[in-house]
Design a protein that fits this description.
With 430 residues, the protein is mainly beta. It contains five helices and 28 strands. The chain has a four-stranded antiparallel β-sheet, with no helix packed on it. Strands 2-3-4-5 form a four-stranded antiparallel β-sheet, with no helix packed on it. Strands 6-7-8-9 form a four-stranded antiparallel β-sheet, with no helix packed on it. The radius of gyration is 22 Å and the shape is globular.
Length: 430
């Protein structure tokens, strides 16, 4: 939500980023499912994108959010590192933003897709960005001048894209059950029909192509498109893939909430990482080839040792300190608990996906400096008071603040609404 109070769809006790324990803690800050994860070449920085419309740049050295990136009007479905300083984010709004670390606004925005963008890939020489979209096309974007060309041929949503190691070809996969190997020199493609709709693709350092399908299987092809094996990875559709930097391991995330680690050469399942039982939307290996990051529907980024199957630290709720511990027994604080995934109560805390609620009462809607609000909210004449916040949850955000991204939620009890607004008066005025 882009006002002063966004409740997370997932009810969980998120923690202030500044309070995370070093090295082994989860990365917590998104207010919705983590749809995409990318890791820098040196392994020190992570970029994540979420259904909450934000991307977050994280430092693995300090275990903190370095920057929250806001541009997209819908879910951020894909992220990528272009080099040490520059990153790319792409969303369901059909736009791609190019960012430089430390800058609040993107350097450039690419537009052209007419449907959600769901995957990005960077060429080996970092000159070209490829995007896959549900408008049934792949686009190639020049990172030097922003020009693009369109690769057409898929008959349904394009769900994944990856460059070959030599940079001469590109592989795209779609719901039309095809993997297409595009020769970038002339834009022609070889079409490989597979038995099931395809949701993801990754290419190993030796050029082998790995696809993840809706039937839960991984299918491998040689660089020239010949069938080279398959693995039954999960009973549910595979939605994300990652290959370790040495090419030894494949991580396949299933919509059912498990991540399967596969020995690529042996074509065998080594182990299954069992998390909290919620969907896992994204996976990425660190350069060490052993540490795997997973992004889940709970808005958290967890860490695993892919070699042993053990969680690194804890991937369960409740390990760090409760951010509302100081308000134990406060009924209003318990109602607010659903909000802490997105919002801080004090402006000294590292900002999460939503704006801070510090100084909420008396503030005009969509007026907080440094936060990107929608034009619809900026045009509204609402000042946040106990009465207006109560009204928001009495009639619902869609009716009270049309154009908001906040999930539709109501607090039916007048007593509960009053407890919440009283709590906010105490907690946000400090």
């Amino acid at each position: 939500m882009k006002l002063g109070l966004r409740l997370s769809v997932v009810l969980l006790a998120a923690v202030p980023l500044a309070g995370l324990r070093p090295v082994h803690a989860q990365l917590v800050g998104h207010g919705g499912p983590v749809r995409a994860i990318a890791v820098s070449v040196d392994g020190k920085t992570v970029l994540s994108g979420s259904f909450d419309t934000a991307a977050i740049r994280w430092s693995l050295v300090t275990e903190s959010a370095e920057q929250v990136l806001r541009l997209h009007a819908d879910a951020v479905n894909a992220v990528a590192f272009l080099d040490e300083a520059r990153t790319a984010t792409a969303g369901a709004d059909g736009r791609i933003a190019i960012w430089t670390a430390g800058r609040q606004q993107p350097d450039r925005v690419f537009e052209g897709h007419t449907g959600p963008i769901v995957a990005l890939a960077v060429s080996p020489d970092a000159s070209t960005l490829a995007s896959a979209s549900w408008d049934r096309t792949v686009r190639l974007w020049s990172l030097s001048d922003g020009t693009s060309r369109v690769l057409e041929g898929h008959s349904q949503n394009v769900n994944g894209v990856a460059f070959t190691p030599d940079g001469q070809s590109l592989v795209s996969v779609g719901y039309d059950q095809t993997a297409r190997a595009w020769r970038l020199a002339d834009g022609t493609s070889e079409i490989h029909k597979l038995p099931a709709p395809l949701n993801a693709v990754a290419i190993a350092p030796d050029g082998e192509i790995v696809t993840g399908a809706a039937d839960g299987r991984l299918r491998m092809m040689t660089a020239d498109g010949k069938d080279s094996g398959n693995v039954a990875a999960d009973a549910t559709p595979i939605v994300a893939l990652a290959i370790s930097h040495d090419g030894a391991l494949i991580a396949a995330a299933g919509i059912g909430g498990t991540v399967v680690i596969v020995d690529r050469k042996a074509r065998s399942v080594l182990r299954t990482l069992v998390g909290p039982g919620i969907p896992v939307w994204s996976v990425a290996f660190l350069p060490d080839g052993a540490t795997l990051l997973t992004g889940g529907a709970d808005g958290k980024i967890g860490r695993w040792n892919a070699l042993t199957g053990d969680a690194v630290g804890s991937n369960l709720l409740g390990t760090p300190a409760d951010p509302l511990a100081a308000y134990a027994g406060d009924h209003g604080a318990e109602i607010f608990r659903a909000c802490v995934a997105c919002h801080t109560l004090a402006d000294k805390e590292v900002q999460r996906a939503g704006p801070t609620l510090a100084g909420l009462y008396g503030r005009k809607i969509a007026s907080l400096p440094g936060y990107r609000f929608s034009e619809a909210l900026k045009a509204m004449d609402i000042v946040w008071t106990p009465e207006t916040v109560s009204k928001l949850f009495e009639i619902g955000p869609n009716a009270y603040t049309p154009g908001t991204k906040m999930p539709e939620q109501h607090i039916g009890s007048a007593e509960d609404r009053r407890a919440l607004t009283d709590f906010l008066a105490r907690a946000t005025s400090k």
